[in-house]
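Here is one such tokenized protein:
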Amino acid sequence: MILTEQTANKTAELLLQINAIKLNPQTPFTWASGWKSPIYCDNRIILSYPSIRNYIVAEMAKSVEQIYGQPDVIAGVATGAIGVGALVANYLGLPFVYVRPEPKKHGRKNQIEGFIDQHQNVVVIEDLISTGKSSLNAVEALKTEANAKIKGMMAIFTYGFEIAKENFENAKVDLRTLGNYDSLLDQAYKTNYLNAKELELLKTWRTNPAQWKP
């Protein structure tokens, strides 16, 4: 669920402004899931633009407090949300941890990096939601290792796939995002980032991304 239409439109405008969105229908990107995609969203580039970074962090932090109250800990999902998660925690004056996709193979073999006490209230910060699998993997690690009480998850952007919606509903995790795919396409078309043919391609791709072929 997006926070507001206004925030979603502004987020889309900013992501397009710094080329965090890459479009390449002829030579599609391959995601970690194996899906072929004509579009790629790299939100990590936000960290390199102070004014945009500050907007994203402030919107996320204020929304965390408004929706979930003040948690005990902010947790970022590695690696994409480590930077923005730490900044949100700093904005709120809260402790920060981040969660690896799996435990390290050496040393203390941590999956959660940083200190978190048992049974603390946690809001998870994510940069991007596709299927939701890696995001919910982090949630499960927090619950398993720290008996954390997950208040919810706040992300910058979601593709809005049905499988992600189902995964979050099944896991009983509340997800809120600043931006979404529909707002992105609307903004991209209005600003001539996409032409009509590309817009239709991206709409078609989203309906069945697992089976899409260029």
Observations:
- The first helix runs from residue 5 to 17.
- Residues 186 and 192 are 10 Å apart (CA to CA).
- The radius of gyration is 17 Å.
